[in-house]
């Protein structure tokens, strides 16, 4: 039996359409303000952890409302494959899933066939940008390429810049860069600013997501400082992790980053997007991050132009949860494969 249309969701835009768009707003950046950066030393870890611990418990959505939130999470996915055994064939299948991330029969049962549900982007290694661009032609779904010595960032600067240029030439419209963690760990914020600024200039019109690798920065103070410097240098998004570190996206680290984005908006009038990545595998976790964005930044951030979730297996669990909402039964994961 079909359920009520999910367009009544509290996170849906006014016209009821779940649009997939590339970020509308570019961050021009600002001069490096070290006084602002050094304010990061006032970060309160215990208060941050207490606040983060309340997020999964303070806001609960059920039934049709949960389905609406999960469909919104799908539209904010950067559907990702970054494995050593990736092939053009795997990427083409992933792009097909990106075009139709939720099975048609599930959408019909939910009364959501009128919503144009596609993912926010497909993220791949540079050498697979071309097959991804070809497979997504006409869909409006952007291709993001990881770059600048991903995941460790331990390559010469000239090589990093060449990687960006090569991915752009192959058709990528978004570039996920990694910073040199050593600049943060040694407190050399001028070097970090110059590095990210050079990446931004090389990206040109392509939107740049800056991965700060929170799990390798040691402290939440460093997370805040790195986030601020990267935004000052012109990052269009700040991103938690590569997905390859032992510790990836966490709610405390994400809370620090989104509050840095809020402070940046207050000082500059510019919205910078946020992307958690790595370790987000369940539908329930995706709801936690949506709640974080809604409570800390508001509805304006609840779309693909300002919020992405970097994941692959997450989509399978979201589809399983949507099937349960529609039928009252859970299905096996192999009924919802992601290449």
Give an account of the 3D structure.
With 339 residues, this protein is of the alpha/beta class. The protein has a single domain (20-335), classed as Aldolase class I (TIM Barrel). The protein has 13 helices and 8 strands. It has helices spanning 34-38, 45-58, 63-75, 88-99, 104-110, 129-135, 157-170, 181-185, 189-203, 220-232, 251-268, 283-296, 314-327, and strands at 77-80, 121-124, 143-146, 174-178, 207-211, 237-239, 273-275, 309-311. α11 links the parallel β6 and β7. The protein is globular, with a radius of gyration of 19 Å. The two termini are 30 Å apart.
Q: In terms of topology, how is this protein built?
A:
Elements: H1 34-38, H2 45-58, H3 63-75, E1 77-80, H4 88-99, H5 104-110, E2 121-124, H6 129-135, E3 143-146, H7 157-170, E4 174-178, H8 181-185, H9 189-203, E5 207-211, H10 220-232, E6 237-239, H11 251-268, E7 273-275, H12 283-296, E8 309-311, H13 314-327
Parallel strand pairs: 1-2, 1-8, 2-3, 3-4, 4-5, 5-6, 6-7
Comma- or semicolon-separated keywords:
339 residues; globular; disordered N terminus; TIM Barrel; 8-stranded parallel beta sheet; alpha/beta; 8 strands
């Amino acid at each position: 039996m079909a359920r009520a249309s999910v367009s009544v969701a509290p996170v849906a835009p006014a016209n009821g359409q779940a649009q997939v768009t590339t970020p509308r707003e570019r961050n021009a950046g600002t001069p490096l303000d070290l006084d602002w950066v050094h304010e990061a030393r006032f970060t309160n870890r215990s208060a941050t952890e207490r606040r983060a611990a309340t997020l999964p418990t303070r806001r609960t959505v059920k039934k049709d409302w949960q389905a609406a939130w999960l469909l919104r999470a799908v539209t904010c996915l950067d559907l990702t494959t970054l494995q050593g055994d990736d092939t053009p064939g795997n990427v083409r299948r992933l792009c097909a899933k990106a075009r139709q991330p939720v099975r048609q029969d599930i959408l019909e049962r939910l009364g959501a066939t009128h919503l144009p549900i596609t993912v926010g982007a497909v993220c791949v290694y540079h050498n697979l940008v071309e097959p991804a661009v070809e497979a997504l032609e006409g869909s409006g779904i952007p291709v993001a390429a990881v770059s600048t010595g991903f995941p460790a960032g331990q390559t010469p600067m000239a090589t990093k810049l060449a990687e960006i240029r090569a991915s752009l030439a192959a058709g990528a419209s978004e570039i996920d860069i990694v910073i040199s963690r050593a600049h943060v760990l040694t407190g050399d914020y001028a070097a970090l600013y110059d590095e990210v600024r050079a990446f931004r200039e090389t990206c040109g019109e392509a939107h740049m997501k800056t991965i700060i690798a929170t799990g390798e920065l040691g402290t939440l103070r460093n997370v805040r400082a790195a986030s601020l410097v990267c935004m000052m240098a012109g990052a269009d998004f700040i991103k938690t992790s590569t997905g390859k570190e032992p510790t990836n996206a966490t709610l405390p680290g994400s809370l620090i980053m989104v509050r840095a984005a809020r402070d940046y908006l207050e000082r500059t009038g510019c919205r910078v997007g946020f992307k958690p990545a790595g370790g987000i595998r369940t539908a329930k976790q995706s709801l936690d991050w949506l709640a974080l964005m809604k409570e800390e930044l508001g509805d304006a951030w609840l779309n693909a132009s300002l919020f992405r979730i970097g994941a692959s297996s997450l989509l399978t669990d979201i589809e399983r949860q949507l099937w349960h909402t529609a039928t009252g039964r859970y299905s096996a994961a192999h009924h919802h494969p992601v290449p």
